[in-house]
Amino acid sequence: MTDPRPTRLASEVPFDRDGAHRGFVRLFHSVHESAYGFIPIPIVVLRNGEGPTALLISGNHGDEYEGQVALCRLVQTLDVSRIRGRVIVFPLANQPAGLAGRRTSPIDGGNLNRSFPGDPDGTVTQQIAHFLSTVLLPMADLVVDLHSGGSSLVYVPSALCRLPEEASAAASALRYLKAFGAPIAYLPSPSQGTGDDRTLNGTVARSGRIAIGTELGGGGTVTPAALRLAERGVRNLLVELGILPESDRQPGEAPTRILEVGGDAWFVYAPEPGVFEPLVELGEEVAAGQPAAKIWFPETPWRAPETVRFLRDGFVLCRRQPGRTARGDCLFHLGTDTGL
Predict the structure, then answer these.
(1) Hey, is 174 helix, strand or coil?
(2) Of 278, 274, 259, which Cα lies nearest the Cα of 319?
(3) What mean pLDDT value characterizes the chain?
(4) Domain range for residue 173?
(5) Number of independent structural domains in the chain
(6) Both 321 and 185 in a single domain?
(7) Which of 85, 106, 115, 171 is deepest in the core (most CB within 10 A)?
(8) Could you tell me the CATH number of the domain that includes residue 302?
(9) pTM here?
């Protein structure tokens, strides 16, 4: 059900006027240091006549940088005269988290990607989620949400999509996923790694739209390979949507291998606090029962390490980055072939 309450955020840029428009979404925020201040969330709208709309988002988590850099480059290089329709770029969605270089907001502790559909009268993070849900998403024909592993995880650079239940919509989603051109793509389960479904992807799915996401790497840094993949993939999606001409398409190096990520059996968690020693590399094929990691206990160095094993066969998509770990931290997750 659509929230009838209006957003409290105000955009400085128009959405329905041709041209390149750059400015901020103002989230009014009265604090001790600034009684009438606002949080400036950057936004760019490129429009050239009638046509489809792509909504491009990064900085949903503030410590995931690959998408932020890719969208910065895009807004500085995309010629509005060559597009048909509209591109809305929201490159630092959780602006407070982005400036702090953290997954969550330093203002309210909010994880934007666990705050949807949001609340116009709620915390700063909830207000951003509500603005996305009620203002930006309804304009979009396709949503692109660029993520990576952030500070705590590293991924094989990949694209992802939740398939709609309706057959023709699912076929369209697969077409966009393959058009992105990543060597690896995967289909996540609705609540993968979240415990519920308050994600942006979940909100897009409930709206009947399609979202293409990514996990571009991680480790709190940017790599040239991940950046190339992100830039090429976003432009390919604009071609597939009909916003950019076909001549701009850049095929991937190989056909996309599409995996799925299901429930708990696809994940490996730390059973105790200690120091994490991975026993496999990203991109390896592993078998059920195979040792995945050892947890060492330097505070009790004579204690034998705890061995953690994979629960099923699969392809290693993701690995924890920091060595020190706590009980319940995700150490790995797998993907398994779909045949799609």
Answers:
(1) helix
(2) 278
(3) 95
(4) 10-261
(5) 2
(6) no
(7) 115
(8) 2.40.50.100
(9) 0.95
